[in-house]
Amino acid sequence: MKCRFCENDLKYEFIDLLNSPPSNSYLSIDQLNEPEVYFPLKIFVCEKCFLVQIDEYKRSNEIFNADYAYFSSFSTSWLKHSKKYVDMITARLSLTRDSHVIEIACNDGYLLQFFVEKRIPCIGIEPTGGTARAAREKGIDVIEDFFGQRIAPKLKKADLILGNNVLAHVPDINDFVQGLKTALKPEGSVTMEFPHLLNLIKFNQFDTIYHEHFSYLSLLAVKRIFEEHGFLIYDVEELDTHGGSLRIYAAHDNANVQVQTSVKNIIRKEIEANLNQIKGYTGLQKKANEIKIEFMNFLLESKMKGKLVAAYGAAAKGNTLLNYCGLKNDLILFVVDKSPHKQGKYLPGSHIPIVSQDHISKNRPDYLVILPWNIKEEIINEHSYIKNWNGKFVTTIPNLMIF
Q1: Please, are residues 213 and 169 in contact by the beta-carbon 8 Å criterion?
Q2: Torsion angle of C-alpha atoms 77, 78, 82, 84, degrees rounded to 10
């Protein structure tokens, strides 16, 4: 294996989560009787550039296809986050009706709809057919394709290019960043949000590892990649989203921008955590194994006591956890999800049925395991009524909690 950025030989293993089906490959009832394909979920770290990455066992065009079932708009907290960003960036960059905005991986138009409301011209790039159609229904112009140097020269140059949780999903990160360079106006800005590797390690977030995520990003690695392609990262924010994310601001390296102290501060945090040395990338395997054993013990004890356990959120991170634990639908009866695009299907690997929210009241589970722990407050607020039958919530990251 070669590093997908610097082509250095990859020798150091970050974590091995064994074999798993792709986390968003939800199954129809007919597919339950068909063979499932499992892929290795082994992650490496490059000793030269410290990019943490998976080998491309499953190609991106096989994952992000017409059947892709993740629609961003079903999370109210994510919509609030997106609207807040649009208001902020419009003011910060003085965007007007004469500006042009490109969002890469615009999904169902969850964010660009707020630019449309402001009448700021925008376009989305989105390879998955179902979400692209949903975005068009919101009045958003969408190019149904993958972003990179192949299509970047064909785009109208942008004052702002943004991408939320897409940089980690890119198999050819050099081609992607060079595409940003091509599509950006001379004085334009790029913002990218991505889960912070520092938090993944610190808070045992191993379930955020799945085949859609080709890279796991520190600012140290991203800064090096962007600088290689003629960018200057001039600001960075720490966000609460997805268990702790970074939002970087980048401009052409000859642009008239001032580098904020935030960049140096985050780099210092990462160096203090030894992310500039291989020793900073050890220990996650042991912690993942401990969580696996703790969760399995809880489920087995609940089963023996006759307690009903259900789950909330047919999220990719939940599928990583369930498949790493080797779980099936005998220990977790069902998983609830808001999205009608997932309801009526089954989780990959575990074959747990995905049902609508009314199943909670009908079945009155003793425990509701929150799989997308990053939005647990939203879920708890919406389903606090389970206390009426003494139901309890359960989370597993960074360790098992029952409350």
Answers
A1: yes
A2: 20
CA atoms within 13 A of residue 42's CA, in its CB half-sphere: 11
Model's pTM, two decimal places? 0.92
Structure tokens at 9: 């030989």
Alpha-carbon gap, residue 298 to 226, rounded angstroms: 44
- Alpha-carbon distance 92 to 74, whole Å? 28
- The pLDDT tens digits for 320-372 are 999 999 999 999 999 999 989 899 999 999 999 999 999 999 999 999 999 99
Q: What digits encode the pLDDT tens for the residues 157-181?
A: 999 999 999 999 999 999 999 999 9
Q: 191: alpha, beta or left, given left = phi > 0 and alpha = psi -120 to 50?
A: beta
CB of 115 closer than 8 Å to CB of 94: no
Read out DSSP for 121-175? Answer: -EEEE---HHHHHHHHTTT--EE-S--STTTGGGSPPEEEEEEES-GGG-S-HHH
Residue with tokens 């049902």: 355
* Strands 367-370 vs 309-312: parallel, antiparallel or unpaired: parallel
Q: Which residues pair with 247 in a beta bridge?
A: 193, 237
Backbone angles phi, psi at 40, to 5 degrees: -60, 145
SS3 272: helix
Q: Are strands 392-395 and 335-336 parallel, antiparallel or unpaired?
A: unpaired
**Residue 55: which of 112, 3, 133 has the closest Cα?**
3
As a whole number of angstroms, the distance between CA 65 and CA 145 comes to: 10
- At 296, which helix (H) or strand (E)? helix 284-304
Contact yes or no for 187/160 (Cβ under 8 A): no
The structure tokens listed for 73 are 């708009």
Locate all alpha helices (DSSP H) within 143-257, ordered by sequence.
Answer: 173-183, 197-202, 219-228
